[in-house]
Amino acid sequence: MPELIYLAASGDLRLSANQTCWAAQEATEKAVTDALEREGAQVRRAHPYNPAAKHGFIDSQKYGMQVFRDIPPDAPLIVVEAVWQYSHHLLHGLYTHRGPVLTVANWSGQWPGLVGMLNLNGCLTKAGIRYSTLWSVDFTDAMFLKGLREWLSAGTVTHDFSHVHPLADFKLSDEAKSIGEGLAASLRRDKAILGIFDEGCMGMFNAIIPDELLHPTGVFKERLSQSALYAAMLAVSDAEAREVRRWLDSRGMVFKTGPNPAADLTDEQILEQCKMYISAVRIADNFGCAAIGIQYQQGLKDLVPASDLAEGLLNNVDRPPVRAAENGHNLYEGEALPHFNEVDECAGLDALVTNRVWKQLGFSPETTLHDIRYGEEYNGEFVWIFEISGAVPPEHLIGGYAGAVSERQPAMYFGKGGGTIKGISKPGEVVWSRVFVDNGKLKADLGRAKAIELPPAENERRWNATTPQWPMMHAVTYGISRDQLMARHKANHIQVAYGPDAEGANRALAAKAAAFQAMGLEVSVCGDRHGLS
Fold this sequence. Notes:
The termini are far apart. The chain is 35% helix and 20% strand.
């Protein structure tokens, strides 16, 4: 039993978010501390509550470095998260920390700690930092206590990874190998460009693919600036932006507007979002991008409304036309321009491969990432809430554009407002995946799931338990329990795309797995009902 355990908490960079979420963090820390003390451990918080800021988070990399100077490098350390957090606030200290590290989150969709912890875990994995991880509703359940006792005695926690199988364990069909190897060969020959509007969104170290790992796949980065996106927006006329808005109105999309820009979605905010959409497509065309990612954080969030409307439109094949300023040519006509939210390059590579595999199979190629936000049992099944603020294409939603509602983003995150493309993902067969960096290698996990439809009252309950302005998928993973997915997944984000049916989704998974393998990634297939044998 260690004599003293240190406790740290990384938070947001945005003061309003840290203040709003502090009560949930404080309650979670108390529950974790009580559990540790019941086991006979002593706990010391590594940094104090700041009465002037009205929260107790590590809220910058600078402050995090100050905190870690006073943490004994060999001491056991627990990072407790009940909120979204910026991993770079403490990644530096964890690089040189020698004692056992445990990341812990509350099983709640509120702010959300699960998403923050998963991002931190992905960053630690990429950095090669050893850590263990746990989660709990109230920190008294058997799974949590068993893992906590193991960590206190041995400095590690053992999880069940029996659902993970190397792709080499399976025989791929001739179709899968032909599509996958052909795609890999075409990328190496013809190359492709990911347009990166500023790397490292919100400290997501895990979302940056090192160039030396990306280039052998045939994919390269065009490093773009959000300031260039803003400048391009200034050059888009109001008339062009109104055309995009009219197009959306004609498809039946609903915009819930109001008069107060500080609290409501306004027509002016929507107009700026339409300008961002047009500008993003034009810049992508100018640089020959096959996919793009907009950070929409430091800097851009202080200038313009949220990027979420633009992101979802970009990921849809049926979308408002954007014409080149020079000659009126319809850009990317009849095509989705895959967008990876928060410049998650792992999701960007995944989206590019998904788009090309699905098109070769003749399937609708719309794809997006979601956060693994939360989940609960419903009618005997564990149903995940996959939920993200942006990048969800209307094609994924029940009713398409007519089933989509745009609501103002929460003010504590998005001071300049802007709307989302809110809706419920349609029921159907899904392929999920995650590209990640581990041990200096690019890897990919793939699996199968189904998106299900729940009653309206349950939709509202789940929205109110998370973020009611954001699009949501109710997902049931095949052959993977809640705790298995949490223990294995190396990111807050999960990529999803629909198959036309179960057989089609299995064909798509096999071809995508074959493509990743031929591109040099280490591929694992997770769970069951994927059609491989």
